[in-house]
Write a structure and sequence with these properties.
The chain is mostly beta strands and about 120 residues long. It has one helix and nine strands.
Amino acid sequence: MDISIEVIDGIHGQPAEGVAVSFVSHLDDTEIERIDQRTDHLGRVKYSGRRVGMADGKTCTIEIDAHIYFATLGIDCCQRKVVVFFRPGGPDDVYDVRSLIAPSMQSICCMRRPGRASTQ
């Protein structure tokens, strides 16, 4: 499974560099894997070659830390984190997640392409 996440700064209309993004897989109420990264200069992070979220009852979340990002810019943000909950469909699927963040709003778009993940 490949997941590509892109975060855009809605105030400045540009990629949000340095945003803390966590990919977390859960089984029931138990966290079984957490991968923490920061977005690059293009506002992107990628998780590749993982086979998480495939068992019954397993779900994943993506956590985007908007508050810390805007705090580093000296901007007060009313939301702490943007959290996307989803249940992956298949081990070879590719997901593209786009998040537009601003201090008082967020917008998410998640697209799934079945059966195209790289084998790593």
